[in-house]
Amino acid sequence: MSETLPPNAGLIGGITGPGDLRRLSIEQSALLAAEIRDFLVAKVSRTGGHLGPNLGVVEMTLAMHRVFDSPRDKILFDTGHQAYVHKIVTGRQGGFDLLRQRGGLSGYPSQAESEHDLIENSHASTALSYADGLAKAYALRGEERHVVAVVGDGALTGGMCWEAINNIAASGNRLVIVVNDNGRSYAPTIGGLAEHLSTLRLNPGYERVLDLVKDALGSTPMVGKPMYEVLHAVKRGIKDAVSPQPMFEDLGLKYVGPVDGHDIHAMESALRKAKGFNAPVIVHAVTRKGYGYRPAEEDEADCLHGPGAFDPQTGALTAAPSVKWTHVFAEELVAIADERPEIVGITAAMAEPTGIATLAKKYPERVYDVGIAEQHAATSAAGLAMGGLHPVVAVYATFLNRAFDQVLLDVAMHRLPVTFVLDRAGITGPDGPSHYGIWDMSVFGVVPGLRIAAPRDAATLREELREAVAVDDGPTIVRFPTGSVAPDLPAVRRVGQVDVLREDPRHGARGDVLLVAIGAFAPLGMEVAERVAGQGYAVTVVDPRWVRPVPIEVAGLAAEHRLVVTLEDGVRTGGVGDAVASLLRDAGVDVPLRDFGVPPGFHPHGTRAEILTALGLTAQDIARDVTGHISGLQEHATEIQPTS
Questions:
Q1: For the whole prediction, is pTM greater than 0.70?
Q2: Does the annotation count 402 as an active-site position?
Q3: 242: confidence class by pLDDT, cuts 50, 70, 90
Q4: From the candidates 59, 268, 374, 467, which is the catalytic residue?
Q5: What Cα–Cα distance (Å) separates residue 543 from each residue in 177, 332, 445, 456, 497?
Q6: Closest Cα to residue 627, out of 513, 547, 518, 524?
Q7: Which position among 37, 174, 402, 456 bears the catalytic label?
Q8: At how many degrees (to 10) do helices 264-277 and 26-47 cross?
Q9: What average pLDDT does the structure give for the chain?
Q10: Coil, helix or strand at residue 569
Q11: Catalytic annotation on 374?
């Protein structure tokens, strides 16, 4: 990637790798930290990205790279969106002009970018498991290397972290866990970590840690106070409060902290102590999300966690306001909750991004944010449903994959009325393959009794959400993409559950193409139809509305056409196209089918339009294919026409 920094770029211009950091004094490192914050604000203001988390980890990242020898020592980020500073100091400053844009830097660690990056899965709560396996591998191979896992921004609310810690503690390997405690909504879990793992103090700050834990756990309903009382009872039994006997000595976990995460000297000192133990160590760094940039620090919602392009002076977004899918869902959910007191909301640390926060503002007692714990969210929702409520679980589409077993066996097998609302469904663009919501219609399409709705516009989102929460004998999913809602696309008529969006004027004659357009691909389907019709073919466009199971009416409509075409914003394998083909076989409808969707694979980041173009999912590409196929069918029919 080309270097775009000016020649007078200060200290940051001289940083091409971690080795350059080790030649700086502590004072110079502090100046570099200020330059990095200015750099982040300037670059992210143009491209959008995860600003707040990275402003909070500047000194911590510098200290890690000054103490550990990357890439020989492996530094893993959980969550991966807090790795921008890591990218800056590992030679990728020039790539920030194209951050999260096609051909530019990923917003997450990327093996293709640098030998300093290892794990690309950017779903939270996974790094400690990776780290456990890495450390075991290095130990078995006799390699003297450290593994450092940076855990923050809510990752510790995920159960995988605690499963990993149980194994890490027993392993005795060279593994340092840096807890980035940014004091936000994730503080109680960070406090929980301090409560559980403050076993071996390397400094006399025991009382200070206990106060921190008390404050954190005190804000955790039901659980926090009993946990604190247990801890306090243990403390009373310790004779020497300055250097206590470890509470969980048998685990072999050391604890350093809490440390000021914005003090490079303090962070380096703590990390060097941790490194010297050559065994698992917790380093508890207290940071502030958005630190050093006033608009981020004053943003109460999320400290400019992941803004689009913004004015660097004010922090105000520069994009023109528009009606978003999330806003439509949020408004309609509140309207439904006004009418039905049994409606409750659940989210997994995504209250604002998924719109659940709107419900929480009006009915705070009816909303539960469980942290980054999608599996728990699904089964807790099952319990709520068993108790007579109708939970609406709002998560990003990509994250519900993590709770497949819970949806299958805890919800569906009990035929419980739980509605899962999947935001960011389909190709989402800048966040890359780990965040594309392209799997849900395939993965959850196999769940018995589960029904999936894919609205095409604001009106059908409102309608289908209401239909979903009216289902009382099993789970439902309502999925929609990110971004602005397209103009409403009214139906010409409705056949059973299926909306007919376009019909050829030659009514009564057999049509050429039945085009089944799924959800947000309905406008694309209409454009394809216009192009194909322009070649003289009769095209009908339908939106099944509920795509799993596929409405039986689709089979009847298919029988009236010579070719069926499906368009879906999800993976083709096991997708709606496959489901329509299965429906036609079962119904004895012998009509050929062409299915268009996302091919299996991990597709690179870029804008949604760029990615769909690269995948051949444009009106021009699809219309060309469909025209060629229907033309081939026509020629074949002519060839076998019996002679008189």
A1: yes
A2: yes
A3: very low
A4: 374
A5: 50, 21, 17, 8, 9
A6: 513
A7: 402
A8: 100
A9: 85
A10: strand
A11: yes
